[in-house]
Amino acid sequence: MTPGLAGFIASGDDGQTGDDAVAGVLASLAAEFTVRPEHGSRPGSRTDGGTRRLTWLDTFDWRLYRAGLSLEFATARRGGELRLTAGDVVTAQPVTGFQPSRPHLLGDLPDGPVADRIAGLVAPRALLPMVTVTTVATAYRLLNSDDKTVARLVVEHPSVPGAEPRPLPPRLAVTEVRGYQTEARRASRLVGSGPGIAPATEPVFAAALRAGGHSPAGYSNKIDAAITDTMPAPRAAATILLRLLDTVDANVTGVFADTDTEFLHDLRVSVRRTRSALKLFGDALTGRKGLTADELAFFAAEFKWVGDMTTPTRDLDVHLLDFELTAATLAAAKPDDLEPFRVFLEQRRRREFRALTRGLRSQRFTTLTRDWRTRLTALQQAPVNGKTAATVRSGSSGKAAGETAGSLAAERTRAAFEKVVKRGVAITPDSPAESLHDLRKRAKELRYALEFFAPLYDPAVSGKVVGDLKRLQDVLGEFQDTEVQIGEIRALAAAMLAAGEAPAVTLLAMGEVTAGLAARQRAARAGFERRFSAFADIDGQRRMALLLRGTAG
Amino acid sequence: MRIYATYNIKGGVGKTTAAVNLAYLAAESGLRTVLWDLDPQGAASFMFRVKPKVKGGALIRGTRPLDEAIKGTDFDNLDLIPADFTYRNMDLLLGSAGDASAAKHGSGDAPGGKPARKLSKLLAPLAAEYDTVFLDCPPSVSLVSENVLHAADVVVVPLIPTTLSVRTLDQLSGFVDEFNGHRPELFAFFSMVDRRKKLHREIAEQLSAERSDVAATAIPALSVIETMSVERAPVTVFAPNSAAAKAYRALWAEIQADGE
């Protein structure tokens, strides 16, 4: 019943502190209203005041923040409360025994309006504590000549707790009493015009993060490399690869902690992108002061080793993530029939995860990422002299070293596109599964090329190209993934049988799961023709040409 | 949404003080509550320090949404629709508020007809926002009171402990019994009871024991209740431990228990 008006920050100016600015605001309000502190203990009074400890929760990749939502946990006398803010709408859900310092998967949250609202957005990621803020709030009532409360002013003193608490500038907000909008607006104007007072442009959590040297949405699995059209190709290539390496590094801790499955997924995708990048434009890193062809081959092989190491755990994660959905769609078998399968998958996963973490903790992996970073950083920072670069344009290695990012992008993306078209048109209804798998790999390379060089392309054109390509990739992915999964389930069934852990009903249910996958695979195969045409027909080729013409190519 | 009305044909029987305190107690218990001051004297509005501002009876005619007239009180969960001086002509407003064609053909003025149900219609949209509505009615027998009786789920009737006032309750009860369809529940209580007067004591004790529609709780005649108009707040707020505040709490508990 008391919607909040815009908030303010009392940062102070001209040697004045935030508290001085607050005192100034109270004085100017006192000229128009009777200003009276609100006492929480008085019956019937509002309880906006007091000390609160708030923890900002989000996924590692900031899914809520990016969707314009803010989720906080407020400690209360009994348990606490999860509060989800979307614009002006606040959804609250009381929770007991919630420990904000620990990660929470969606299944760990009690059912309620907040859990319902974020389910589709967050899963399968865990909610992590991003930052904790302690606020001490004082509420004031603003009274008219009848001594009637016509608005309230809440002054908050936030700080980031720790061994040395970091105080943040005070925040002020005027809240409206229903039916007294004019007075609240008047009060808000008085607050806003005070010296050292500025509108609060970001939530207190964002300010708290910045105070700690971080920023909201500081992690993304998107490539977003800082490259330009005219940047020398070796520098652009190193910049893209460094960005991918950053993503690998950013996820290692989360993989070890096994907080959620997506740390490994993001790490794996970055490794795969790295391998594709080396294939697409690795030669741009060779040449003078760059890598030798042997070194390039070495790094490519090492990243293949990392990628392969992540495959078994990820494959099992996929089975487990889809498990509930798969069990729910069984027609003949009962969902419980599959339970021994789940137990087996989880056992397997534990084993594979141990092997994976051994690999990621190994000297080999540490050396690889360290050396790779050293080499890329050197290339990225190497002074590039046009003349010097041009002189190395001889020989097969270092062919791209004298180019710009724009020409490299156009040339390599075009080549990737031509491969997709050539292989795609050769596919007929009788083509073996292998030719679709091969096309899938080429389509993935093209997609990565478009993503690596995205900053150089016109977003209006690339949006349509990427959209059509994505839809083609979806059918190709569905076709191959279902085939792989069928093969895996058959192998797992054999392994369960060998281990004496396969009840007959479970094997029957697993059979039904593979039948469902086979039906999905057929549907994907049937959808291929249409999706391919939409991407690679005359119009599609024209769009691609238009896209590449926009670059220096 | 549950609608309570405080009503008596007679004035000065503690109707408004009951409405103000009971509405506050409802809000305090966590129910989202709105009190509509239908009395043109505006005593309830005054006690919540809200100026009676609405002009021209636009609310009753339905030309201005009720929502726009609502004012927040100083208390959590408690809002108020202030009195309007034009309510002194509310019978005319309600009479003109019905379906025009029905009124022309005479059916609109039939007992329990459209004008008599206008208030219910006006209140309906509040259900999304409030759990409880209190209607503080002007003392009269009129189209206003008929509207209130049709709209209310519970009519809270303050009675002065006299033989006459008991007759009034019986008349009211008879009137309500003639309603078709929805009939409000009558909940009477003795108000302004002077413990020093033998007649007050006897009537209050006897009737509350004998009659199921009379509350066991009586509100004593205490000067602290009269100071509400000086303090301009519910007695349950400025004197929470007074005998008066305790009596209103007991009365609200009894009203709620009765509704279960």
What's the gist of this structure?
The complex is a heterodimer of chains A (553) and B (260). With 553 residues, chain A is an alpha+beta fold.
What this model shows, in words?
The complex is a heterodimer of chains A (553) and B (260). With 553 residues, chain A is an alpha+beta fold. Chain A has helices spanning 18-30, 63-66, 113-122, 181-192, 204-211, 233-257, 262-281, 293-321, 323-328, 339-361, 363-381, 386-391, 405-425, 433-452, 459-498, 504-536, 538-549; strands at residues 4-10, 34-37, 50-58, 69-75, 80-86, 89-95, 128-143, 149-160, 166-167, 171-176, 197-199. In chain A, strand 8 (149-160) and strand 9 (166-167) form a beta hairpin. In chain A, helix 14 (433-452) packs across helix 15. In chain B, 47% of the residues are buried. Chain A binds chain B through residues 1-2, 43-46, 141, 146-149, 177-180, and chain B through 24, 28, 32, 48-51, 69-72, 74-77, 79, 232, 234, 236-237, 240.
CATH topology of chain B: Rossmann fold
Summing up helix and strand content along with how strands pair, one would put the structural category of chain B as: alpha/beta
How is the quaternary structure best described?
heterodimer
- As a percent range, the share of helical residues of chain A equals 40-55%
